[in-house]
């Protein structure tokens, strides 16, 4: 029973990262809760498989981008923007490794994941463009600020 529940949690690992994206975009749930939910499968994966993740050809580029992100984090003058970028980047990396770790899953899993992603993106885009309760998002605002006299 524990093994089946553990395997189900490991298969759901990519879905847990969406709570971080929702926190960044909409402001709810709180970020500490989102990161707790997103990181829960990692100790379980280490306990079951003996490793945190599989090795991929993209490990070195991800490491280089992470170092660049950390440099940008400390050099950026905009505190809110750098926190948003850091949370989004780390959630994307966690999502990528969640997909890599489940790469040997059945075809039904990938169909379910694609449908889930489509629904999430559809509802988020409808909420953002309808002016929902989330943050006010102006696309390419930096370009307008750059061109301002």
UniProtKB/TrEMBL annotation:
Sequence intervals crossing the membrane: 7-26, 32-48, 60-77, 83-100, 107-130
Protein's UniProt keywords contain Membrane: yes
Statement: the UniProt record of this protein carries the keyword Transmembrane: yes
Sorted UniProt keywords: Membrane, Transmembrane, Transmembrane helix
The protein, known as: Uncharacterized protein
